[in-house]
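Final report, closing paragraph on structural work. Over the funding period we assembled a curated collection of sequence-structure pairs, and we close with a single example.
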Amino acid sequence: MAKRNEVAEERPAVRPVRLTSDMSMPKLSAVEIGSYIAAFAGLFLVLHLQLLGALLAGMLVYQLVHAIAPLIEKNMTSGRARWVAVVIVAAVIVGGLAGTTILLIEHFQRDVPSVQKLLDQLMRLTSHARLQVPDWIADYLPVDAEQMKDKATELMQKHAAMLQQGGKDAARGFGHVLIGMIVGAIIVVGVPRTTHRLPLSTALVMRVTRFSEAFRRIVFAQVKISAINATFTALYLLVALPAFHERLPLSKTLVMVTFVVGLLPVIGNLISNVVIVGISLSVSFGTAVVSLAFLIIIHKLEYFLNARIIGGQIEASAWELLLAMLAMEAAFGLPGVIAAPIFYAYLKRELVYLRLV
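Its predicted structure, as stored:
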């Protein structure tokens, strides 16, 4: 027994095995930390200086060229392929803007040939709405076209300075978008794919690359969702309602508005839904109820679409996007709402790479 005890005492103690994990945060150099600070400061300045339109336009051109160039790269060098892709994108954008302008002009010339007819149509909608809404709301609605003209003139005179400033802001925003598109084209053509970079340049390029990836995921996914939403809305407004002799005024315009504002996550659908229900109320109360029920069903479908398309792209829930949009709207207004999904997708992607979430 003594020998056995001596042998047992001579044996080394067995230490418990500690499992190592690769989920620890990687060590960051001072250069990488500086690149993160520069990236987040740049995103803040983009919103603070009202340059969001330029950023998104440049990113859109950059992504479109990179999507088109590989398709035509088989027959030429990569540099020439990118040049051809830039020309194609420029032609499509210019042609699209020109075509959209012509279609809008033809649409308003055909469906709304004059201001008087537009006022008459609005008065018919208002007259129907007066019969459907409570009296305290009906008191604020104009009685005839002359009163509507007087109120419109009064509002324009009262807010003339605001309208003038709005026109200047719109022109400046269009200029920012144009410059952003040019810068995006220059970057995608002028910067070679493989170059020797110093550490800070490498870190900054990594930040830009991840932001570009987040932009691509969000924007292209939102285009899909908006197209699906506009398709269902078109089936409802142009097929289902006319089949029951309840066609809404300006149905084609509503479909176009649904697609355009649907490019804004969440808030765009709310805008189009309010417009559709409001015009439906001018036709009849039953039509408004049916439209509201249809839109609720579409919203339920969109929750699955958002969860599958956008949520799947950035691994985020709907409440995360809503919370990000709420915070960004409180800080920066409407540009914050537009930027929130993209900025949040980028932030979460960086946190994933840092193994923090």
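The longest helix spans residues 199-243. DSSP finds 14 helices and no strands in the chain. We thank the funder for supporting this effort.
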